[in-house]
Write a structure and sequence with these properties.
Helix content: 40-55%
Number of domains: 2
Radius of gyration: 21 Å
Number of helices: 15
CATH architecture of the largest domain: 3-Layer(aba) Sandwich
Distance between the termini: 15 Å
CATH superfamily of the largest domain: Glycogen Phosphorylase B
Length: 386
């Protein structure tokens, strides 16, 4: 099978890690001819390009592919994609993310190449300006006719697209994002070593959040909930894993609250080191306002950590109340503080919920299983095209 994957940027992020696992498995496990087309990984989020190169993958950089909207550059990108696909001659094209998803699907359609599109998170979502929201929703409606199938990272994404009038139910398949499960079960560093490096001891309760310090990731809600949590649990530490443009803004607000000593910022962390930080945590919080199914949720559960999440998108599919953690109303600060405090003061509850999450979700989030399911979709699409 000859496959071309197209993604806007190969930054350090859930959709990008998911895609890289897919490409790597196709190449190394299934022996497929596969290439990965991406734009330049600009910004403070870091890049996975070097990892792709080290793995011997066919990585093709397209300078015109940039995240921001720019009609002239986007037109050049479309024609460059079209030339690249015409030269590569894939059996199937697999697109990811908004910009690459629109341009890639159109290029594949123009060339008569079957195409599937992954919905890692809805292109139209909470927090967008109204003009962009409606523009992306309309674009997705148009692009629906340019591809044969959608692969959603959670059932919630399929429901959102169907509710917007995009496609029919038989055009959607849910495939949970894959990861290196054994890596999360067996960290490369001990919990004690990582906590010592962070200047955290056994008396501290560590509440972790793993996400870029960026808009819609919701760090501000955890910061605003912190005073209530500290009041009940003075020995709490908040561990922010990731970097981004809002770091100074967050640190300034934390200082205003007089809680600088309660917060730790790791800065940018390579994906293969994230598991070590999760094992150093006691509770993992997810306060994003928009995200398909954040990889950190199953990652935390595989590490045996209970989760507290805002009730958004695919979060309820893994954050199950009183079984693997607690769901709270999106943007609700008091609810968030109450749920985290409940776990922070009860180590037995943390252990019970975390262990249940590991037992329930570790098997289905293996990247090998994900890739097998995705290749089944490819095969089905190709059979239907004959």
């Amino acid at each position: 099978m000859r496959t071309a994957h197209i993604i806007t940027r190969l930054i350090i992020g859930g959709a990008q890690e998911n895609t890289l696992f897919n490409v790597d498995d196709q190449h190394h496990i299934h022996g497929d001819d596969v290439c990965l087309v991406t734009g330049p990984g600009l910004g403070p989020e870091g890049t996975l390009e070097q990892k792709a190169i080290e793995r011997g993958l066919d990585l093709r950089l397209l300078p015109e592919m940039k995240r921001s909207l720019h009609p002239w550059r986007d037109a050049k990108c479309y024609f460059a994609l079209k030339r690249m696909l015409a030269d590569y001659k894939p059996d199937i094209v697999h697109t990811h993310s908004s910009k690459a998803g629109i341009l890639g699907r159109r290029a594949a359609y123009a060339l008569g190449i079957p195409c599937v599109h992954s919905i890692h998170g809805a292109a139209f979502h909470f927090g967008q300006p109204a003009v962009l929201f409606h523009a992306y929703r309309q674009a997705e409606k148009i692009a629906n006719s340019w591809c044969q199938h959608f692969i959603s990272v959670c059932d919630a994404m399929s429901k959102q697209y169907l509710a917007a009038g995009i496609g029919t139910a038989d055009k959607y398949t849910t495939v949970y994002s894959g990861m290196e499960v054994d890596h999360f079960l067996n960290p490369s560093r001990s919990r004690e070593d990582v906590r010592a490096e962070l200047q955290v001891n056994d008396s501290h309760v560590v509440i972790g959040k793993i996400a870029r310090l960026f808009n819609l990731k919701g760090h501000e809600y955890l910061i605003e909930a912190a005073p209530q949590i500290v009041k009940h649990v003075p020995n709490v530490k908040f561990l922010f894993v990731g970097d981004g443009i809002l770091k100074q803004q967050f640190q300034a607000r934390i200082a205003e609250l007089g809680l600088t000593d309660n917060f730790i910022f790791t800065g940018l962390v390579p994906p293969d080191q994230v598991t070590n930080y999760i094992h150093a945590m006691d509770v993992v919080a997810h306060t994003s306002l928009w995200e398909g199914l954040a990889r950190v949720l199953p990652q935390a559960l595989i590490c045996g950590k209970p989760i507290v999440s805002y009730e958004i998108d695919g979060a309820p599919e893994v954050c199950i109340n009183n079984e693997t953690g607690f769901l709270v109303t999106s943007r609700a600060i008091d609810e968030l503080a109450g749920a985290i405090t409940r776990l922070a003061v009860d180590p037995q509850l943390r252990m019970r919920l975390g262990n249940h999450g590991r037992e329930r979700f570790a098997p289905q989030f293996r990247h090998e299983f994900m890739t097998e399911r995705i290749r089944e979709v490819y095969s089905r699409v190709l059979r239907q095209r004959k």
